[in-house]
Amino acid sequence: MQATKLTDRLSVRGQITAEDVHAAKDAGFTTIVCNRPDGESPDQPSAEAIAAAASEAGLAFHNNPVTPDTLTPEKVRFQGDILGSAEGKVLAYCGSGRRSTILWMLANPDGLTPDERVDIAAQAGYDLASMRPNL
User: Which Pfam families does the UniProt record give (predicted)?
Assistant: First the structure.
């Protein structure tokens, strides 16, 4: 299963399937976070379907869907709480991994500087330098 590692505990990627959940478990992930609202794409599995697959695989699942219009301090705080309290590795997904990366950058559960977060995102393939003033 392909995922982009941001930190030792967090990787991000685009939409996953139920089969990907089992691959995530095999890769050592213990928690899955959905940052994609249902219905963005006609062929995407629902968060409920991914949650069921996660439960079946013995993984924790959290649904924290965001769009540019629904990215609130509460959503950022919730993401930070999930990342800060998860036991083991976390896989966060959205449409491409970008929103999951943005949530991580804003929540900053690792206490990194803005420059460190922007650099990590860039190394992962996400040019988010424009966010620096907001970090």
Answer: BLH_phosphatase
**134 found inside a domain:** no
Q: Is the pTM of this model over 0.90?
A: yes
The answer to whether residue 32 sits within a structural domain is yes
pLDDT tens for 70-98 read 999 999 999 999 999 999 999 999 999 99
The domain total for the chain is: 1
Average pLDDT over residues 41-66: 98
